[in-house]
Structures are given as structure tokens and as C-alpha cells.
Amino acid sequence: MNLASGPLSPEPTQLLVGLACFFVMTWLLGRKVLPRIEQVQAERREATEGRLERAEEIRTEAERTYEAYRQELATARHQAALIRQEAAEQGAAIIAAAREEGVRERDRLVAEANAQIAVDQALAAVMLRRDVGELAVDLAGRVVGESVSAVAAGRGTVDRFFDER
């Protein structure tokens, strides 16, 4: 065998040793290194995909929590509206009751005042009658020139005069 091809003419021993080393290295890479590389790549892929899955689960859980929060907030707003409406109704009822109590109190005070005015009017009428009667008798006595009070009192002239009116 003539392998003389110029500067690239290897010796057969070196060629066989080189090929043997090549096959040993290929075998070592195939048996030891490449499975380890594939295992690391699989772990990384799973870690990445696992993180994505966990992130997706966390996002889904966050959406559920957010939706529950929105539901609770809507419920709380509804309850607050009901409480405000109930308070407004109670306030209106209290105002109506206070107004009714005020009207009753006003009516009572007006009735008392009317009764007091009637009493005062009657008292004033009695006093006025007496004073007008005394003044009339006194004036009549001055006109006549002598006291007519005994005669007027005896006849009841002043009382008869007021009774006719």
C-alpha cells in the first residue's frame, strides 16, 4: 500500500493509534459526557417549564383571589348602600316623630296660652267693669255735686248697665 501522498502521509501505526483514540474518545463522550449534558439540559428545561407552570398556577390563583376580592368589595358596597338607605329611613322616621312631637307640644302650648289669655281677659273684664263703674259713679257724683256711690251701689245701676251690653 502506497500512501505516499505528500506531506500528509501518516505512518500506519500513528494512524491506527489516532483512530483508536478517536473511537475511545467518541465512546467516552457518548457514554459519560453526552448523557450528563442531556440530563442537565432536561433538568434546566423542566426547571424552566416548571417555573412557567408554577407562574401560571400563581397567576391563576392571583386571578381567583382578585375576583374573590372584587366580589367581597361589591358585597361590601351593597351592604354599605343598604346601611345608608336604612339610616336615611331611620333618620326620616326620627325627623317625622320629632316633628309630630313638636306639633303636639306647639298645640299644647297654644291651648295653654289660649286658656291663660281667656283667664286674663275675664280678669281684665272684671277689673275693667269695676274700675269703669267706680269712675262712672265718681264722675256722676262730681256732675251732681254730691256722692252717688251709695245710691248706685244700692240699686246695682252699674251692674245692670254692663249686663245690658
Features:
mainly alpha, 90% helix, 165 residues, 0% strand
Q: How many beta-strand segments? A: 0
Structural class label: mainly alpha
Strand content: under 5%
- Low-confidence runs of at least 5 consecutive residues: none
Distance between the termini: 175 Å
Helix content: over 70%
Radius of gyration: 63 Å
**Number of helical segments with 4 or more residues:** 3
Largest sheet: none
Query: Shape from CA axes?
Result: rod-shaped
List the helices and strands in order.
HHH
Average the pLDDT over all residues and give the rounded result.
Answer: 86
Task: Describe this protein's structure.
The protein is mainly alpha-helical. Helix content is 90%, strand content 0%. It is built from three helices and no strands. The longest helix is centred in the middle third of the chain and has 133 residues, at 12-144. It starts with 11 loop residues before the first helix and ends with a helix. The mean pLDDT is 86.
Short description:
The chain is an all-alpha fold and 165 residues long.
